[in-house]
Amino acid sequence: MSLLETKAKPVLAGKYEVGIKNFVEIENEKGGYVKVTLDVPEYGEYIYCIFPSQVNYVTSCLNQQLEVERDTYTLGEALKKIKKLNVWFSYNQDYNRMNVALHEPVVTDEEVDL
Asked: Do the domain assignments include residue 75?
């Protein structure tokens, strides 16, 4: 299919129950990453990359979605076991990037001192 005939995909926003099509660990000099292909309803494939700094968060969230203690399974074990995954998508216009959360985002109106 020609790129000139490609239509834009639907906007990803909010909660989706997705499947994991496959995952592969990519090794490189920077520590590598895990490339996960998500199957998003009415959207298609979405590539989610898990970098070393995110492994603890992702592993904990996957374990929680499997309804076990946060440190029960390794990242690889959890990715193999989970059949459906709850994912929250949002787009950050300030940084022009897609945010992907594996937990329900908490929105607050409180000001934060930095």
From this structure: yes
Evaluate whether 106 touches 97 at the Cβ level (below 8 Å): no
Domain that holds residue 41: 12-101
How confident is the model over 86-106, as pLDDT tens digits? 999 999 889 889 999 999 987
pLDDT of residue 105: 84
What does the buried/exposed string (b/e) look like for 19-54 if buried means 16 or more CB atoms within 10 Å of the residue's CB? ebeebeeeeeeeeebbebebbbeeeeebebebeeeb
Q: Give the whole-angstrom CA distance, residue 7 versus residue 57.
A: 34
**Is 22 inside any structural domain?**
yes
Count structural domains, the chain. Answer: 1
**Tens digits of residue pLDDT in 36-68:** 999 999 999 999 999 999 999 999 999 999 999
Query: In 3D, which of 61, 70, 74 has the Cα closest to residue 104?
Result: 61
